[in-house]
Amino acid sequence: MGRPKKxxxxxxxxxxxxxxxxxxxxxxxxxxxxxxxxNPLALGPLPERAKVGKLQEDGVFSRYAGVTxxxxxxxxxxxxxxxxxAKFVDMLDSQRAALPHALCGRDLLGAARTGSGKxxxxxxxxxxxxxxxxxxxxxxxxxxxxxxxRELAAQTFTVLNKVGKFHKFSAGLLIGGREGVxxxxxxxxxxxxxxxxxxxxxxxxxxxxxxxxxNLKILILDEADRVLDSAFKGQLxxxxxxxxxxxxxxxxxxxxxxxxxxxxxxxxRDPEYISVHAESVTATPTTxxxxxxxxxxxxxxxxxxxxxxxxxxxxxxxxxxxxxxxKFVHEAFNKLRPGIPLKSIHGKMxxxxxxxxxxxxxxxxxxxxxxxxxxxxxxxDQAVDWVVQVDCPDDVPSYIHRxxxxxxxxxxxxxxxxxxPSEEKMVERLHEAKIPIKLIKANSDKVQEISRQLASxxxxxxxxxxxxxxxxxxxxRSIHKRRDKEIFDVTxxxxxxxxxxxxxxxxxRIRFANLKTKKKGVFESSIDIEPxxxxxxxxxxxxxxxxxxxxxxxxxxxxxxxxxxxxxEEGKGGDKSNKDEGVPMPGTRVSKNKKLKISQHRPSGxxxxxxxxxxxxxxxAVVAASATETEVALDEEARNDYYKKxxxxxxxxxxxxxxxxxxxxxxxxxxxxxxxxQGDMEEEEEEEGDERSASSEExxxxxxxxxxxxxxxxxxxxxxxxxxxxxxxxxxxxxxxALKLITQS
Length: 745
Ligand SMILES: Nc1ncnc2c1ncn2[C@@H]1O[C@H](COP(=O)(O)OP(=O)(O)OP(=O)(O)O)[C@@H](O)[C@H]1O
Prior knowledge:
Blueprint: H1 8-31, E1 54-56, E2 60-61, H2 77-85, H3 93-103, E3 108-111, H4 118-132, E4 143-146, H5 150-163, E5 171-174, H6 181-188, E6 193-196, H7 198-207, E7 218-222, H8 224-227, H9 230-241, E8 248-253, H10 260-265, E9 272-275, E10 288-294, H11 300-309, E11 316-319, H12 323-335, E12 342-345, H13 351-363, E13 367-370, E14 386-389, H14 396-403, E15 413-419, H15 425-432, E16 437-440, H16 451-460, H17 462-481, H18 495-501, E17 510-513, E18 522-525, E19 609-610, E20 616-617, H19 621-624, H20 636-693, H21 697-709, E21 719-720, E22 723-724, H22 731-744
Parallel strand pairs: 3-8, 3-9, 4-6, 4-7, 5-6, 7-8, 10-15, 10-16, 11-13, 11-14, 12-13, 14-15
Antiparallel strand pairs: 1-2, 17-18, 19-20, 21-22
This protein binds adenosine-5'-triphosphate.
């Protein structure tokens, strides 16, 4: 932060003035404290031209609860200058409600709509607390601001730097990815304010020598409900345990937690609940116009493409469920040239790249595809015109945060949500949560089908085919993993059609491993998804990484009936007689409830088989290669001819293979028979010798029995477990053989 050069005398003078200012501020704050539990918004603004601050020499100060301008608050001159330079003059409601309580040192739970200015509502108390404590470099960490994502932390850091420009505190951004942790370790002990993601902070607590926060004065949890949820529990609890209990704690979010156990974890002291928009008619900004459309899963890309093509002059933020979907839609749409720049952001991108994409998007009309990594807190500088949710969010809070990327700070914005028919219940949930969303229908004349173009692309770009397969699998997995089973039911999706809509010439093989208990039934995909590599749930970069086991591809609690995608040979439809579900089977699966649908729009000649590794092998790729990029125009005759020849070849090879296999089996049986017979001969010889030396008849009988047991089951009737042992030799045959041997010798 700015440190202009000053003489010693000037410095002393400034210090004295500062001390005086602090004293006055403290008196002001103390004397005009708002009542605990009161809502400052209920108080009217100060009369115009009213005097502010110390009104009389005997210590009468102006009220600061209910005021509407920053310069009417008991805050330092440095902060006021910072605010003024950043052009913040009038307070927004969330700031008016929170600041009077926060400035007098109270713990706070602040809930206010997205884009309502919560960042300043905690940045100002941070600066003021340290200022009033006359915090210096030697005092170490005085404030920690925890954010759930890197972007959000970086954004908060920017606001802090802007508004705190005239203070002399040092502030550090600890988010990982940007700088090596070793570089941070050298400097982190000199920082007064840390803005960080939980994982990185914990890393410093664990690894950085002498790193300590025992002097901490104020702790901020931004997007508190997210930071407090289970994904961060493993990181947040050890962090909190290392912080001093006597501190001020401020929690902010658009969807706030009130769970007692969450608050107990933070040891809050009589927190104030600031719920700025709780009583209002809508939970989302009033300037936001929200629509929902029912779109079958297989029509989503058509709809999205058509939407983009008709909104070329907007900035559109598009939410998809998984990184692989983002990658696929971005790459595929890019190749189809929609006429507007397309960008994407997901958790696996480097921090620099993400920041770059983020600022390019703000700069120019474009489409930004993203996962929930951008769901919360990010302020796109009021640039987003549309938020389009192609995939239904997990829950209502998630919806609120996503749409909150537009219509910020009282500016207009629009949002569109696609729901599959089985997700329609979400509309009810949104209405219950005071979200005014209109059900609309697409203008069918304007909807452009693109599955043909996508199919053609996948033939021309085999790499894209792999991306499409992964998008397909990860989407199904994400739907299955959702907790709200009333809304998310993967069995209700038309999987064949969905696969075709991505341009996939063949539905990626999904294996249903039938485990012993119904609860343990899992899907497995033939597509190799490396553990950890494909975990789309960890897209939130600050979230702890989870190792994904292969078995976990579609979750652990899958019920057998829930997901009746049976291995099924192509062309046989849903043959339920195939019970061997553990064995990977080639071909398309069908839902128990659905008939196999042949997709009409899938271009002929582009069907691809998958090898044992799940890699696509396109039998018609050579023929298809001649097709143009946007159209697969295969010669019908050439294709039939190709199939005919291929069929003949396959039949020939098949016949020969069967012959060889039969021969091998016969030889094997013969060998086994001879071996058994030899064994029998040896036993008989041994028996004979024993017989000679044996003293009793009883012993001989026992050995006979043992010899027979080698070939027969316990019953000695040629049946084993109720099955006939076809490989065994009859008793008569054996006795005849033994007799022969004896007579031969
Ligand atoms: N007092 C103010 N006057 C004018 N603009 C403001 C004021 N306070 C905040 N803003 C602007 O409003 C926008 C939203 O602010 P902010 O990002 O703090 O919202 P938020 O409530 O934290 O949103 P979210 O819940 O999405 O995180 C920002 O662009 C910010 O610069």
